[in-house]
Amino acid sequence: MTTEQFEFFRAWFDDYTTGFMNESRDKTEMINLKYQHTRHVCQEIEMLCSQLNLPESDTLMAKTMALFHDVGRYEQYQRYQTFLDMKSVNHAELGIQILIQNNVLKNLNDHQQQLILSAINFHNRKQLPLDQSEKTLYFSKLLRDADKLDIWRVVIDYYYRVGDETNGAIELGLPDTPDISDGAINNLLNEKIVELEYVKNSNDFKLLQIGWVYDINFLPALKAVDQRGYLEKIFDKLPELDGLHHVRQAVRSYVNRKMTKKNQLII
Questions:
Q1: 3-148 CATH choice from 1.20.58.220, 1.10.150.240, 2.60.40.1930, 1.10.3210.10
Q2: Is the entire prediction scored with pTM above 0.85?
């Protein structure tokens, strides 16, 4: 891929998203949240590519995946007034439909197009399918790591906000009750991502976000999580309840162990 091709994609994306900005103030704020998220994910994936010493052509491919990974979010919110896939539509699949219908990737060869569409398709999956090519899995892991890095930024900024204004798109309508699910704690102690069935309130949701660290694929991404103190910042917003101290130790132990890996791909 060339720089000129990526600039074309960026111009198309800006033009496409501008069409959703003329709604009510509340809708525009939600749309802008996703626009800014995409901008940051592009920056995160560029950072990862630099740390991994990827060639420019691969970096541009990765940035294109980041640029379009949430392109379905805008139509999703316009139709359903929610970002919850379970209450509306799979935003990754919708995004792929939009890119195909608008023939956005027409200037790329078939292999490049399929690589981008596959990474978008897999970015919000619970797990990556193993029956894919090594290159597809590599780029999909890159995108998933970059996406998580910025989602952590978004939720932490929200948890440390000034004032008590709430954002349903971040809280997902979960109750702010003081307890924590035993299932969520057990998942984390066993180095597993928290199952959605255990997410009953905002505390469980924070544990889910902490557990994403078990799905970080690349060492530079894990180092960024550690250096920015993302996990500690979320832990500090949880109540002091029995079991959480052990969870914090387990997560810290996992991060420390993975940080000693010599390979850039850590899982």
A1: 1.10.3210.10
A2: yes
